[in-house]
Amino acid sequence: MSGKQESMGCVMLTCLNLPPTLQNKPAFSLLYSIIPGPNSPDVVTISNALKPLVDELLVLKDGFNSNTYQHPKGRTVFVQLLPICGYLVAAHKVIGFGSHSAKQFCGWCNSNLSELNLLQLGSSKPAWGILQAAQSWKEAKTTSAQELIRRETGVRWSEFN
């Protein structure tokens, strides 16, 4: 088994309005999906798998009426998708950034791998620049064009863009 790698994972949802001691307890978490092995999915597959979840959360962000014990007539509840937590490779794959070994390895600044030894942050990537690069990647006609965009910008399309 030396050198053999297999991968599997899951997508979990937690409520960040709960106290931190309760947020990750199984009773307050939702297992959205299990990502089967033996290999990790590529970025297109993972985006397609997450699309129904993202689409549903986008509907809920406008608010909906929810009846509770304390509010029998209901109150408006809003749902937002916030942080993506996971190990770096999976998180970057899900949110559309390049891998930790890519030329543009950082999702938040313009640091290059060749400048890593300087131990300085690069200039910040503006949100509109990330969205523009992601849209360009999505609209690219060939996989080689997509790869060129990813290498130059460190960004690719994701359902979370």
Could you characterize what this model shows?
With 161 residues, the chain is an alpha+beta fold. It has helices spanning 20-23, 43-60, 88-95, 127-139, 143-153; strands at residues 9-14, 29-35, 64-66, 75-77. It has five helices and four strands. The strands form two sheets. The chain has a two-stranded antiparallel ribbon with strand order 1-2. Helix 4 runs antiparallel to helix 5. It is globular.
Strand line-up of the largest beta sheet: 1-2
Please describe the biggest sheet, giving its number of strands, its sense, and whether it closes into a barrel: 2 strands, antiparallel
Mean pLDDT: 82
Task: Give start-end ranges of low-pLDDT stretches.
Answer: none
Please trace the helix and strand order, writing H or E for each element. EHEHEEHHH
Helix content: 25-40%
If you compute it from the alpha carbons, what radius of gyration comes out, rounded to the nearest whole angstrom?
19 Å
User: What share of the residues does DSSP label as strand, in percent?
Assistant: 5-15%
Number of helices: 5
Number of strands: 4
